[in-house]
Fold this sequence. Notes:
Blueprint: H1 6-35, H2 38-83, H3 89-93, H4 95-98, H5 100-129, H6 153-178, H7 187-213, H8 217-246, H9 262-268, H10 270-285, H11 293-316, E1 319-322, E2 327-332, E3 335-340, E4 343-346, E5 353-358, E6 364-368, H12 376-381, E7 396-401, H13 405-410, H14 423-431, E8 435-448, H15 451-456, H16 465-482, H17 487-493, H18 495-512, E9 517-528, H19 534-566, H20 569-587, H21 593-608, H22 620-656, H23 658-673, E10 681-684, E11 691-694, H24 706-714
Antiparallel strand pairs: 1-4, 2-3, 2-5, 6-8, 7-8, 8-9, 10-11
Helix pairs in contact: 1-2, 1-6, 2-5, 2-7, 2-8, 5-8, 6-7, 7-8, 7-9, 16-18, 19-20, 19-22, 20-21, 22-23
Amino acid sequence: MTTQRPERRARTVALAGLAFQILLSVFxxxxxxxxxxxxxxxxxxxxxxxxxxxxxxxxxxxQRVLVQEEKFETEQLRRERAAAGGxxxxxxxxDEELLLARRRLQWMYRWMLPxxxxxxxxxxxxxxxxxxxxxxxxxxxxxxxxTVGEDKVPLLFFMTLGAAFVSFLFSRxxxxxxxxxxxQILHAGATWLMGVTLAAALVSAAMGALYMGATPVFExxxxxxxxxxxxxxxxETLLNLVLDFxxxxxxxxxxxxxxxxxxxxxxxxxxxxxxxxxxxxxxQFGFEVSSTWFYKLLQRSVVPLIGFxxxxxFAVSSLLFIGADQVAVIERFGRKDRVVADGxxxxxxxxxxxxxxxxTRRVHDLTVGDVEPTDKKADEKELILWTNxxxxxxHLNVLVAxxxxxxxxxxxxxxxxxxxxxxxxxxxxxxxxxxxxxxxxTFIQYEILDAYDWLRRYAGPQNEGPxxxxxxxxxxxxxxxxxxxxxxxxxxxxxxxxxRNLRQEIQRVATEQNLGVRIVFLGxxxxxxxxxxxxxxxxxxxxxxxxxxxxxxxxxxxxxxxxEVAGDVTRAEDLNEAIRTLHELEGRDRVPQDQLQAxxxxxxxxxxxxxKEGIRPVGGSAANTVAKARSDRWRxxxxxxxxxxxxxxxxxxxxxxxxxxHMRKYLEMLADATAGIRKYVLAASEAGxxxxxxxxxxxxxxxxxxxxxxxxxxx
Length: 715
């Protein structure tokens, strides 16, 4: 433990730490602006917030230097007064009022320390929320993530690794000083710098993974981890700040800053973790396991073993095994160096040289289309039909021309003369489109001619770039080719010619784009309408079936009715035609009589038959109607004849006895008129004109009431 002005040394280390943290933040900011990686952005924000930590440490260390100087001055003044024979009671009474620097230090611990803690919490939260192009929960394969140029990755790897190494050295130096009580305040800066060191190591590892595997997934995972770390540190600082209000503290005890992360402190002093693990093992086993020779040997050898493993990994990366159908493109520091064939080869270790294998001596398969998300278990049991979804055949939606659209719109047969369009035609024309939609599954086989062009011309994650480019070219040419052909040609008669044209066009475009491939085969299969139209198609088929059923039912009903009317369908149709012809002739003016008579005779023959011509009389309800009409005719004629004969007899009777005839008719009329009226017979004498009334009961005795009958019997 040193006793020579430790506060000044702490201030010097704090100033050096602040300067180093500022330079480190600027360095990471330059790297981020050049590389544009999200992991470097998180590292830059974490390092920039550390400046506030070191700024507070500088202010506190400076104030502690002032307190120490004030203490020395006060002690020197007390000695001078004591030597002069004066009294030092003033220092005993008002010691706190005179030590202004000490009071200011206590004020900083009481008010400035919580203020800086709150400031750091706000900075951490704002850094984790603002300025990010992706949100928490964003998929790692989303397109919102910015891409990093492969030429920048090696330099970013070495720069971040070097910064992590230098930061680790300064952090370990500050951690060693913080073990002493006089410099304990420096532990907050050391832990924060160790967090920056670990973050830089993770970013460097992400750059190495990006360079070796050409996949940005690990870099995005590191960005996720560092961004979440900002929120974790903010929550930890807030929790420490709250707990500090309730933690008991001695009068001379120096407070521990809330932003002195306990989480990062686990990595700042890994020896403490090892001792804690050793103590836990000793407690579990009941004896000093850490004192055994095996544990000590393992403790001494673990670092050399890890170093040896790392060296072996680098040595193994120098060996390159290439298959019989492959070639390898070897790049040195991101630039093409050579292309080697199959076999065993030796190269410089990673990351100096890196090899990319490409299978150039075999035929590759490519299915152009989109895979439909379906249930694989259900897909295995169902048949592959165009009416259901099946993921085994990726399809591509294309538009094809619809032939004979004019005939469809105008409702005319091919070759028929065009008619004047109506409003209905205009409405159909606005609804109809000159194209139809089909789904096509395309199978392509190709060979890779130039491995380097295939890898670097259109590089993508996991070597999907060139194949994705070839698929894009194929999709565009398929859509263009299908838009110029008809449905019937694509689905049958001209498919071979379309396949040849497609293969030539895709090969031409791939050659123009220097893709380095040769199309060996192209085949179209599974050409059918979209499965979404299956329900509509089946509805149309059902409607047509219903229409056919309705037509046949109507025709059967027509035949039944005609048979019921005329006995058979042919006779009914002939009668209908003959009657229509007769009515048309009767409605015309100046029709020859012989023509009219011939039409009438034809109707008569069809109704009543003609033995000479072998025509039978009409049957069915028409025959019944004719027979009934004949009977009604004879009945009406006979009734009229009888009325005529009776009338002649009436005339003869009238002429023979006119008075009697008139009286009889009068009485008949009177009897008919008074049929329901009671009659009275009045007798009168001509001489004396005396009237007598006679009551005549002409009622049947069986209808007499029982009371009247008993009265008559008693009389």
